Amino acid sequence: xxxxxxxxxxxxxxxxxxxxxxxxxxxxxxxxxxxxxxxxxxxxxxxxxxxxxxxxxxxxxxxxxxxxxxxxxxxxxxxxxxxxxxxxxxxxxxxxxxxxxxxxxxxxxxxxxxxxxxxxxxxxxxxxxxxxxxxxxxxxxxxxxxxxxxxxxxxxxxxxxxxxxxxxxxxxxxxxxxxxxxxxxxxxxxxxxxxxxxxxxxxxxxxxxxxxxxxxxxxxxxxxxxxxxxxxxxxxxxxxxxxxxxxxxxxxxxxxxxxxxxxxxxxxxxxxxxxxxxxxxxxxxxxxxxxxxxxxxxxxxxxxxxxxxxxxxxxxxxxxxxxxxxxxxxxxxxxxxxxxxxxxxxxxxxxxxxxxxxxxxxxxxxxxxxxxxxxxxxxxxxxxxxxxxxxxxxxxxxxxxxxxxxxxxxxxxxxxxxxxxxxx
Length: 424
What we know:
Elements: E1 30-34, E2 47-51, E3 59-60, E4 68-73, E5 79-84, E6 91-96, E7 103-104, E8 120-125, E9 132-136, E10 144-148, E11 156-157, E12 166-171, E13 177-182, E14 185-190, E15 198-199, E16 209-214, E17 220-225, E18 232-237, E19 244-245, E20 256-262, E21 268-274, E22 283-288, E23 295-296, E24 308-313, E25 320-327, E26 338-348, E27 356-364, E28 373-375, E29 380-384, E30 393-403, E31 409-419
Antiparallel strand pairs: 1-2, 1-24, 2-3, 4-5, 5-6, 6-7, 8-9, 9-10, 10-11, 12-13, 13-14, 14-15, 16-17, 17-18, 18-19, 20-21, 21-22, 22-23, 25-26, 26-29, 27-30, 28-29, 30-31
């Protein structure tokens, strides 16, 4: 019996080097709120801004005089959910990504909170964009987690007062779970009802843990903890193991690190921090997921030293390869000559209009030499029209990888055959 060997070609070394492009991703995919003022007459209330992943192109999205805060960009990039008191108390709103057409999502009756100020806040889009999770004191001034459709329909409680105070919902990448702060710890809630809540942190003394954020692959959770005596960004496995302080305090100055958010490729973590170099106000920072290479993305503007707070990062998915064809897909005759081949890829991506696609692997069901193929372009090459005389025919398998601006990739394969004879 013939033993088949596989030869694999990798062409992505340079393109796919981790962190090669710091904080890459689609434009204006990071949202934050800030109290900065742009001129001497500007209001000092919180305003919604967006920026590119590297901190460039910071652009304002709200211009009214209300307090607008805690924004989150929808997965398709078309909408921004945020909390605002423009209706007299804090409700959840959704506006177009350019700031237009703001629509009220929650409509809270102030009498339901037992006399307390109405607070609906911390909206977070589900990965499929079908729901918004948020925290609210809508029933008896007990802060609980709810989900609602972006159009304001189907508001549903996720937690109840008997479980304690529940805040800061964070969706798992598959949309089946929420990480929340329950009282003073991080708890995972299974939205499918398949398992009981799982507590991941165990605070002692006056410490608390909150503001969880799932890594894009769902294996890690970043969160805020005060266990070391100051607010700091920690990292743990999704089951609660290996909890590590990523932003340990340096010196004796005021030191705050909180509200972590992941870059789409999982290589970076954004957070809000106070550091001596950036002045007394909080600013938005970014670091590698191991806590190294910390850099400030916002800073004191020329008019005001306003704080920049709580960045959220748009959820981005890998490209979808819808079709992959080869021309030709049959090499005949088997005349031991190199034959030009080209591939055509049908790909869609909701964050990058032109993902980069290229051949990243060549394999065969027969033993092949390095001289049996060569690449002439990202989706073109030459293959040797040859097959084993005693076999059933050679089958080349070409792997194509499509990568978007967030360094997220998808792969697909296509076969090109060299049949044993004209009967194929």
